[in-house]
């Protein structure tokens, strides 16, 4: 009997030792997270720093980062996902999250990392609205931008304008631009009043301000055929065709602004960093974009991407990683190093932003931002710019140009929805 007990005890000890060794090996095994995102030098260095810090806090995790040029990003990502060899975490445009979620390519954020209630309480609604699918969130926002007005206070003073009071309405914008714009004896522009370039997010922002719906809720497809959209498109193209305060032949608007030769230019807040880097002696300011009328809407288009987790990845640790990338501290560093705006509610009213003459208007614009309702990447800029040029280069009416845009936009949206289902 005693012999049997001893044998049984020895067996238990052997099992315990085996389990201990197994657990020890398991504890030492590292989880590798393969992370892809589109490239810029500032963004890559920042993400690398985040990865080092995350791995230090989580020693059993190894993060492999691959930064891909944006033009090549989807040509590489979609085949990799289809082949089952894609990354564990990656970026996609905000508008594509619903299609990726519905197709099962990505998984919801692990509730052990962040619940639905937590996400909704911590992030502004426009930045996360399109990330929700079947009651769950499938990502965290990154690369968030709005449209603001950049202006040159020196040129304002020379034109007799108050640099402490940027234009508040569309009519004022025209008057300010007329005061700033200069031509030589031959009628050639030597100093430009305002620059839009027909840039897609700027044109869409003006339409949103003016109350244009832009989306057919019955067909669930783009629709630009509204009086509000026509009026907004006429306003922005009239700057070039009627008022002659924008000149497409003068040069690239952002480059000329940095040379101190453009009074005002519409652009993303990320231009703050670009201006400081490429034109360190340039004095410039930012402002919320003018409203259609006094007291009118200051709405602005929100453009962003999302960090998402592959359906094949380890849920909790990968959710923890993308949450880390979009934490309050991370977003503050994003703003400092890349010019991307924070999307966490608690950050928008920080004294360090409210007291910054360049960042304060940008933070206010975030509170009034509106996400685009479509998925089609061609609507980010390409098709809008072509619509603008139908008027400025070919003499089409705004109404006719928007009919063309609606037709092309519907086609592009259907195609993109299919492409977003790898």
Description:
The chain has 422 residues and is of the alpha+beta class. The protein folds into two domains: 31-144 and 303-354, 3-Layer(aba) Sandwich (D-Maltodextrin-Binding Protein, domain 2); 148-302 and 364-419, Periplasmic binding protein-like II (D-Maltodextrin-Binding Protein, domain 2, 3-Layer(aba) Sandwich), CATH 3.40.190.10. The chain has helices at 2-28, 41-57, 70-82, 97-102, 116-122, 125-128, 153-158, 170-180, 200-209, 227-241, 253-258, 271-278, 315-325, 328-338, 345-348, 351-354, 359-367, 382-392, 398-419; strands at 31-38, 61-68, 89-93, 106-107, 132-133, 136-137, 140-145, 148-151, 182-183, 189-195, 215-216, 221-222, 262-267, 285-287, 300-310, 369-371. Strands 3, 4, 7, 15 and 16 form a five-stranded mixed beta sheet that branches. The protein has a five-stranded mixed beta sheet with strand order 9-10-13-8-14. A two-stranded parallel sheet has the order 1-2. β1 (31-38), α2 and β2 (61-68) form a beta-alpha-beta unit. It starts with a helix and ends with a helix. The model is unreliable at 1-27 (pLDDT under 50).
